[in-house]
Specification:
Layout: H1 3-15, E1 29-33, E2 38-41, E3 49-55, E4 68-75, E5 84-90, E6 97-107, E7 113-123, E8 135-146, H2 153-156
Length: 168
Amino acid sequence: MGSGAFALLLALALAGCVTPAERKCQLDGLWRNEQDSLMEISVVRDNGDFQGKYLTRVTLAGGCARVSPLKGAQQQPGEGGWPTFAFTVRWDKFSNATTAFAGQCFVDTGGKETLTTMWLLREAVGSLEEDWKATRVGRNVFTRKRTNKENILLSLSPSCEDEASPAP
C-alpha cells in the first residue's frame, strides 16, 4: 500500500472518530421541516437566547399563512452532547393560536444537522366546555436549508395580498 493510500485510510478513520463536541450543531440559519415549513433563526446570543421567523405551510383555518415571530432559548450542551432548545411561535395576523416547541440538535457523521422537536399548539376557544379540543400535539424534524448569510425568509413567503377577497 502506497503512502498516499495509507494517509487516506488514516484520515477516513480519524474522521469517523469525531466526537459530538467536534461536530457542533448551530441553531442559527434557515431550516425546513417535513411539511415544507420554514424557520429562520437569527444569531444565538452567548446566554442562549435567540429569535427568528417561522413560515408554516399548515394552517388551522386553511387560509394564507404569514411569517410569524419566534423567540427561544438554547441550553448549552454538556460534554459530549448536543444542545437542547425551546421556542414559541405567535402565529401573527392569521390565527388565534400559539405553539411551543422543545427539541434537540444533532449532527450525524456526515455533518448533516437535524433538529428534532415536539410541539404543543394551543388554539383559543370560546368556552371552558370547548377546552378539551384546544391543544394539539405533534412532532417535526427540521434539516438545514442554507446558512444564515442574509434574511431570506420574507422573500420565500407567499403574498397573502394576492389572494382574491371573498365576495360580500
